[in-house]
Design a protein that fits this description.
The complex is a heterodimer of chains A (515) and B (266). Chain A is an all-alpha fold and 515 residues long. Helix content of chain A is 67%, strand content 0%. Classes of the chains: A mainly alpha (515), B mainly alpha (266).
Chain lengths: 515, 266
């Protein structure tokens, strides 16, 4: 059809009975971009999701190598500052490891799964804003590159012994890259949330939405209520770093930059990464044993409650006296209460297993093993979090903080492996190999467990607050255990990344799907 | 009238406003401080109150965006377009503008720190991609036919795009070529200009006399040539212009030798 004979629907099509014009149908499919051009122009959310998943898993493998080096620095084999060439360099890597796992690995990994899976779950052909999804991926990737390059160029989120001229430029770039990554993740989250809210099949209420889509809606809402606060922090820090002294809010010449942002990787905000894990676990278990929950609304409430307890913008203590906030009733209540939804969800998962088919091959399926491992690690993290807020135990400013972080990160990575296996069709890849899947899950569970355990016990043994675990006396054995754990996590993350990349090369055939 | 998304986020806005008021008054706010954002009276705990008001602001903004653009709300869109059935399954065409916009944001971020020109360039790219993106989004839903949509879009944008892209291309070519010619010696400049002109003329003659040559080949050759020119221009700009002797009473000659400096006269 050309413009000379056509047909703009509302002007030329015959009106219907109620006066509204019927739309014209189009049989012409848009021209498909070439394979090379696809990542740059695609409007297919599944393709964007696949880009997110593979890239974040590759970044996860890289980040976990930094974790191995940091853990090696905790052992007495070599002093951390010698390993990285200075105290500032050690601090840069220490902060990069944490920020990267959150903003460059786990959150984009789960967002990518959501972009691919959510539309089909709610009965939509595509996400609400396909081009925004593509912009989300590329903005995230460019922001990630800016962060990594600037950190290795001497930037990062603060410096222990002061900021020099060149470092100031690199730090400013790190801050801008962080802001770009956060905005990109929010853009993707808004796309997913809008798809669930507005593009559901007619007759599907929010309570009917499958658990993973619901968990992503909750996660997107929680991200929207938490991450903009981090952007506000970044603006304040940037103004301090680059602006005139007259507009200084805090201090930017010291580790204070990190102290204004560390709330993002500590509880309760650290749990924002974990909300989609609940949905993935429930769906994977249900799909494996072939059962549905008898109380789906209970799952909905549990996931919503966990999301509520993950809202963490309020928990930053830089501008107030730390004891005022972290010894306060609200902080303690959030820490303790986070265990409850996870216990309830474990009950829901157990009910699914009891109602379903319990053959050995199903119980040893990658999805079942992975979902169980993710829930166990998440439960362990929440339990440590609950212990951490109990004042007499004195765990607040100790490595117990990182026990929570490591548990959540490992659970997120395992959930990614489970999703690769469970939704390979939606992600447009071949199914993840069973051996690789089981291996990755076992390594991540073992490594994550060792990290959680060693960080918790180190926290108990610490005589004084010691977040960076630099007081090596008295916990040498635990530091070696942490080193072993970080190696396992690195190998597990690498296995997951390689599995995803090799699945990209596997042709998606009926046999491979069945396999 | 009100979209589902609007109702959801406006409800959140109302809830956060209420929470901010309660929190403000229960943490030491007085008079009408919490009601007037601290204009008349105290708001109590600044951090908590600020966070809640911020959340309310975010919710309100999202709700207004959703209701203004009827984004993804099938029923509202059908009402707006006076259609009996909304075209929810209309394919969204492939577009590279989201990627261009992302690179623009990246350039603006890097330029903010490193050089104002890069920042301005990034902003220009963002504005350009926003305009193009908006047009693509409009054209996708203009009718139910993708070919008509494409033609509609081109009818509006081509009269703008072609002159702008042409002017930019000419500008880049002139700039890059001039950098190269100003960097090499006087004699080399003549040689470079002669060889390049001969190549262009020869290429055009071959293409005109052998129309069977594939367009794909010509595209590749054109792209390679443009990239070579651009790279040469950048390298020449980095190397700097050759040394010029400005006219004096005795001499009007240029030395003709490159110096590797950017300044005039050494």
């Amino acid at each position: 059809m050309t413009l000379t004979e056509p047909a703009i629907a509302d002007s030329e099509a015959p009106p219907s009975e109620d006066g509204a014009a019927a739309p014209e149908s189009s049989d012409e499919a848009p021209e498909a971009p070439s394979v090379l051009a696809q990542p740059f122009v695609t409007s297919d959310a599944a393709t964007v999701g696949r880009l997110f998943v593979v890239t974040s898993l590759l970044l996860g493998a890289g980040t976990s190598v930094i974790g191995v080096l940091l853990s090696l620095g905790r052992t007495e084999a070599v002093a951390p500052w010698d390993l990285f060439g200075g105290f500032n360099a050690y601090f840069r890597m220490w902060t990069l490891y944490r920020m990267s796992f959150m903003l460059l690995v786990v959150m984009p990994l789960l967002l990518g799964v959501a972009l691919a899976v959510v539309p089909s779950q709610v009965g939509a052909g595509n996400v609400a804003f396909p081009r925004a999804a593509l912009a989300s991926f590329w903005s995230w990737l460019i922001g990630a590159v800016i962060i990594v390059v600037s950190v290795f160029a001497g930037g990062g989120w603060g410096a222990i012994d002061g900021v020099t001229g060149n470092e100031s430029d690199a730090m400013a770039l790190t801050l801008l890259g962080t802001g770009m990554v956060i905005v990109a993740l929010l853009l993707g989250a808004v796309t997913v949330a809008t798809t669930v809210i507005s593009l559901r099949q007619t007759g599907m209420s929010l309570l009917d939405v499958p658990p993973f889509s619901w968990s992503m809606l909750v996660a997107a809402a929680v991200w929207l209520f938490t991450l903009p606060v981090a952007i506000a922090n970044l603006v304040v820090i940037y103004a301090d770093l680059r602006g005139r002294p007259a507009i200084a809010f805090g201090r930017a010449e010291s580790p204070d930059i990190w102290l204004q942002l560390d709330w993002l990787v500590e509880q309760p905000a650290v749990y924002i990464m974990a909300v989609p894990v609940l949905g993935i676990a429930v769906e994977a278990i249900g799909a494996t044993v072939g059962a549905r929950s008898s109380r789906p609304e209970a799952i909905t409430v549990i996931v919503g409650l966990f999301g509520l307890l993950a809202v963490g913008g309020w928990s930053q203590d830089y501008f107030t006296a730390p004891q005022d906030l972290r010894d306060g009733l609200v902080y303690v209540a959030f820490g303790l209460a986070a265990v409850l939804p996870l216990v309830a969800l474990a009950g829901g998962a157990a009910e699914l297993v009891l109602r379903g088919t319990k053959t050995p091959d199903r119980l040893l399926d990658v999805r079942m093993l992975g979902a169980g491992a993710a829930l166990k690690l998440l439960g362990a993290a929440a339990l440590v979090g609950a212990l951490r807020v109990i004042e007499p135990l004195d765990l607040l400013e100790t490595t117990a903080t990182w026990a929570v972080f490591h548990g959540v990160v490992a659970a997120g990575l395992i959930a990614g492996v489970v999703a690769l296996r469970n939704w390979s069709h939606e992600l447009l890849i071949g199914p993840l190999s069973v051996v690789v899947g089981r291996g990755a899950v076992a390594l991540l569970l073992g490594g994550g467990g060792l990290l959680v355990l060693s960080d918790l016990i180190s926290g108990f043994l610490a005589d004084a607050p010691d977040l960076m675990a630099l007081s090596l006396d008295g916990s040498a054995v635990l530091n070696v255990v942490a080193f072993a754990g970080s190696i396992l996590v690195a190998v597990g993350a690498a296995a997951a990344a390689l599995g995803a990349v090799s699945a990209l090369r596997t042709p998606l055939t009926a046999e491979s799907e069945a396999g | 009238m009100f979209t589902t998304g609007f109702k959801f986020f406006f409800g959140l806005f109302a809830a956060f406003c209420a929470a901010a008021l309660v929190y403000g008054y229960t943490t030491g706010g007085n008079h009408v401080g919490p009601l007037s954002l601290g204009w008349k009276g105290g708001v109590g705990d600044h951090i908590g109150y600020g966070v809640l008001v911020g959340l309310a602001g975010v919710s309100l903004t999202i709700s207004l965006v959703l209701v203004s653009f009827r984004d993804a709300d099938a029923a509202a869109q059908a009402h707006l377009q006076n259609l009996a059935e909304v075209l929810t399954d209309q394919p969204v065409t492939a577009s590279f503008w989201p990627v261009v916009a992302s690179f623009g944001v990246g350039a603006a971020a890097v330029g903010l720190v490193l050089h104002p020109m890069v920042f301005v360039l990034g902003l220009a790219v963002i504005v350009l991609s926003m305009v193009e993106w908006t047009m693509d989004a409009w054209a996708d839903r203009a009718t139910g036919d993708t070919a008509v949509n494409r033609e509609l879009r081109n009818r509006i944008m081509a009269p703008i795009e072609i002159p702008v892209v042409g002017a930019l291309a000419v500008g880049v070519i002139v700039l890059a070529a001039s950098r190269i010619l100003l960097t090499v010696s006087k004699l080399e400049a003549v040689a470079v200009a002669g060889v390049v002109s001969a190549l262009i003329l020869g290429g055009a003659w071959v293409y005109a006399s052998r129309p069977g040559l594939g367009r794909r080949l010509m595209r590749i050759l054109g792209t390679v040539g443009a990239l070579l020119l651009l790279m040469g221009g950048v390298l020449a700009a980095v190397a700097g212009e050759r040394e010029f002797h400005h006219p004096t009473d005795d001499t009007h000659e240029e030395s003709g030798e490159p110096t590797g400096t950017t300044g005039h006269g050494g």
